[in-house]
Every structure is written in structure tokens, then in C-alpha cells.
Amino acid sequence: MGKRYHRWKENVVNSLEIPRDLAWQDSILTVTGDQVCLENYRSILSYQPDLLCVQLKRGRMKIQGKGLKIVYYTKEEMQISGCVNKISFER
């Protein structure tokens, strides 16, 4: 999609006061203690107790730790528990 479309969408989003993450479907990562909540992801690429790789709309995310467990997941959201040591992003 071209620059013109993105400018148009940005103007619509701003005029309707729609939150950017909702309008652009940006991923949202919330870390609270030993819980991680990820919203707006595309797919789970790999899952092991020490490494979780997720495809985002714009790149990939890796969560490294110990005892990682996907508590639940839906098409839009997932919750992970365990001891998280590192979260990294790749484009």
C-alpha cells in the first residue's frame, strides 16, 4: 500500500480518535510478574519450555526463559507464564 493510503488512514484514525494499536493492529506486550500477555500476533512459530517464537505483523518476537507455558491462546491474544529472562524482536 502506498504513502497516500497510509496518510489517509492516519487522518481517519486521528479524526475518529481511535487508539493507534487498534487501528493499525500493532502488537501489544504486557509483562506483569511471571505473566506475559501478547495481543495482535499472527502465529506461534515454535514453542519449547525455554523458548517461544511468535510471528508478529511486523517481525518476530522471541521469549526466552525457564518453564515457559502457554496458559491460553486465541486468534488475537495469548498468555504465557514462567520465568522470562529475555524478550527480543527481529524485523
Automatic annotation (TrEMBL):
Domain of life from the UniProt record: Bacteria
Stored InterPro entries: Spore_YabP/YqfC
Protein name: Sporulation protein YqfC
Lineage: Bacteria, Bacillati, Bacillota, Clostridia, Lachnospirales
